[in-house]
């Protein structure tokens, strides 16, 4: 069977073939609909570290460039399960390292 190309004429309600009226507006996507934000893992980690009520467990370092887990046991048993679907500290560290190396690149 041979493929045949057919020309298609779009017609819109209320339009005339005379071309007097402007074509209808083309639908546009909502602004920001396809914007990509930070991954949920990074957002949740930021929210957790930025919560000053748990600074005794995890907090930003002095310069605010990194964070310190002061109490790994409380971090694992209390915080991880509140923000993530697990409470395994080593899985959290592995995922954090994955994002670090993805953003910064592997060492030469």
TrEMBL record:
One of its GO terms (biological process) is cellular response to heat. It holds the Pfam family HSF_DNA-bind. Residues 1-38 are annotated as: Disordered. Keywords: DNA-binding, Nucleus, Phosphoprotein, Stress response, Transcription, Transcription regulation. GO terms for cellular component: nucleus. SUPFAM superfamilies: Winged helix' DNA-binding domain. One of its GO terms (molecular function) is RNA polymerase II cis-regulatory region sequence-specific DNA binding. Gene3D superfamilies: Winged helix-like DNA-binding domain superfamily/Winged helix DNA-binding domain (1.10.10.10). InterPro entries: HSF_DNA-bd, WH-like_DNA-bd_sf, WH_DNA-bd_sf. It comes from the Eukaryota. It is found in: Nucleus. Residues 37-108 form the HSF-type DNA-binding domain. Belongs to the HSF family. Homotrimer. PANTHER family: HEAT SHOCK TRANSCRIPTION FACTOR (PTHR10015), HEAT STRESS TRANSCRIPTION FACTOR A-7A (PTHR10015:SF322). This is HSF-type DNA-binding domain-containing protein.
């Amino acid at each position: 069977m041979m493929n045949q190309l057919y020309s298609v004429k779009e017609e819109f309600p209320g339009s005339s073939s005379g071309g007097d009226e402007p074509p209808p507006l083309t639908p546009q996507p909502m602004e920001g609909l396809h914007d990509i934000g930070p991954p949920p893992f990074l957002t949740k980690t930021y929210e957790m570290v930025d919560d000053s009520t748990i600074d005794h467990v995890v907090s930003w370092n002095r310069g605010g460039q990194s964070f310190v887990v002061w109490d790994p046991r409380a971090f694992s048993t209390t915080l991880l399960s509140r923000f993530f679907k697990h409470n395994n500290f080593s899985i959290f560290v592995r995922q954090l390292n994955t994002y670090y190396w993805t953003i910064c690149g592997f060492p030469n």
